Amino acid sequence: MDAPAQLASGGTILIVDDMPANLEVVTNHLERQGYRAVVALSGDEGIERAEYVQPDLILLDVMMPGTDGFEICRRLKASDRTRAIPVIFMTALADTTDKLAGFAAGAVDYVTKPLNGAEVLARIESHLALYALRRQLAAQNAQLQQEIAVRSETQAALQRSNTEFEQLAYVASHDMQEPLRKIASYLQLLSQRYQGQLDADADEFIGYAVDGAKRMQALINDLLAYSRVGTKARPFAPTDCMLLVRTALADLQFAIEECGARVDIADLPMVMGDATQLSQVFRNLISNAIKFHRDEPPVVRVTAEPAGAFWRFTVSDNGIGIADEYFERIFVIFQRLHGRTRYAGTGIGLAICKKIVERHGGRIEVRSVVGEGSTFALTLPALQ
Ligand code: ADP
User: Fold this and answer.
1) What is the Å distance from ligand 1's center to 307 Cα?
2) Is the peptide bond before 86 cis (omega within 30 degrees of 0)?
3) Ligand 1 atom 7 nearest Cα
4) Most ligand 1 atoms within 8 A of CB, residue of 288, 366, 374 to mutate
5) Which atom of ligand 1 is nearest to 331's Cα?
6) Whose CA is nearest to atom 4 of ligand 1?
7) Cα-flanking dihedrals φ and ψ of residue 49, to 5°?
8) How far is the CA of 330 from the centre of ligand 1 (A)?
9) What is the mean pLDDT of residues 49-58?
10) What's the gap in Å between 283 CA and the centre of ligand 1?
């Protein structure tokens, strides 16, 4: 609290009063305390001085010939140049309506005549401190607003470049599909028709080429799927997560049976979202939870709990787990921790999950212990 006290001392006080005799007591008192007192003998002069001197505070007499103090105060408060300067009324009247009129005109306080120097000073100091605080707040607020403006501009630019990237990825991957399909099918034709007719090396080379073309097709399809999260987004609607997870399980029935997986589903809520995209999220997470299992059969659990305006879902497994240093990296497009021969996949699933969850205003993260299992947690917006 040192700063406001410091700001409050040594300020300039404008005193507006038509009776010079009244002023002397106050000005002397203020000047003794290190303030600079500027005097105006009429309301109009007061306004002029306030605009010119820009005092830290104005002491304003209520009863003045011509324009009274209330009107002067209203004018001060109507002008951009003087609006912020605190005004304290000086009134001889103990009348409550008078004081109320002063507050209504925009004053912050009043003092009654005959003036008591110590009281006037105490009030001045407390209002100067308040004023300084208010100015400090206003400056911080303005700075914050500016930061917000800069940030939202950056965000808008980021959004634009994201959209452009998505469109580019979409067009590129879409247009690449056709020539690639041609390469893959002619290579396959070559291998079928000329298998064993050329030498062993040729068979091997054609095999590599077919494999490469197939992988390229898979990557391009993934890139297309990734770019569709933005380009083919649908508006949010109430979505039953229980239904989404059950559908995902039906899609994964073969994998579940093959490795004898058990999938427990807790009560799952409705959320606001894009059902097609959210079903993709649950399918990817459950599919991974089954795929990355250890020797024992996978046990997968899906839960949900309220978290403010969101629901927090978890998909946990008892699989191979993930080392801490990969917690972030696995959500990046095409990032995988294992060779293709060990676990099939291209490394797009979690990148798509992240993109979808973030489009819904949520977050996704993983916690895991190698050799024990992983828990993916994501937040999705609750129904309003
Ligand atoms: P993909 O499954 O095609 O490899 P993802 O983007 O779905 O791609 O996953 C990226 C990588 O994260 C996986 O290759 C795997 O190494 C790791 N991962 C994902 N889910 C799990 C899980 N439940 N348990 C262990 N590792 C996982």
Assistant:
1) 26
2) no
3) 349
4) 288
5) 6
6) 347
7) -65, -40
8) 7
9) 95
10) 13
Query: How far separated are the first and last CA of the chain, in Å rounded?
Result: 42
Residues in the chain: 384
pLDDT of 307 over the 70 cut: yes
Q: How far apart are CA 57 and CA 35, in angstroms?
A: 11
CA 317 to ligand 1: nearest atom:
23
CA distances from 245 to 38, 240, 278, 350, 379 (A): 76, 9, 9, 17, 15
Predicted confidence (pLDDT) at residue 308 exceeds the cutoff of 60: yes
Q: What is the mean pLDDT of residues 147-158?
A: 92
Nearest to 60 by CA among 107, 116, 20: 107
pLDDT at 346 over 80: no
Q: What is the mean pLDDT of residues 351-357?
A: 95
Question: What pLDDT score does 251 carry?
Answer: 92
Residue 192 has pLDDT above 90, yes or no: no
Q: One-letter amino acid identity for 214?
A: K
Ligand 1: distance of its center to the CA of 246 in Å?
21
Q: Where are the alpha helices (DSSP H) in the chain?
A: 2-8, 20-32, 43-53, 69-78, 96-104, 117-194, 200-231, 241-251, 253-258, 275-291, 349-359
Protein residue closest via CA to atom 8 of ligand 1? 347
**What H or E segment, with its residue span, contains residue 303?**
strand 299-307
In terms of phi and psi (left: phi > 0; alpha: psi -120 to 50; beta: otherwise), the region of 110 is beta
CA 288 / ligand 1 centre spacing (Å): 6
Which residues' Cβ are closer than 6 Å to ligand 1?
284, 288-289, 292, 317, 319-322, 330, 336-338, 345-351, 374
| Nearest residue (CA) to ligand 1, atom 14 | 336
The conformation of residue 331, written as its DSSP 8-state character, comes to G
What angle do the packed helices 275-291 and 349-359 form, to 10 degrees?
140
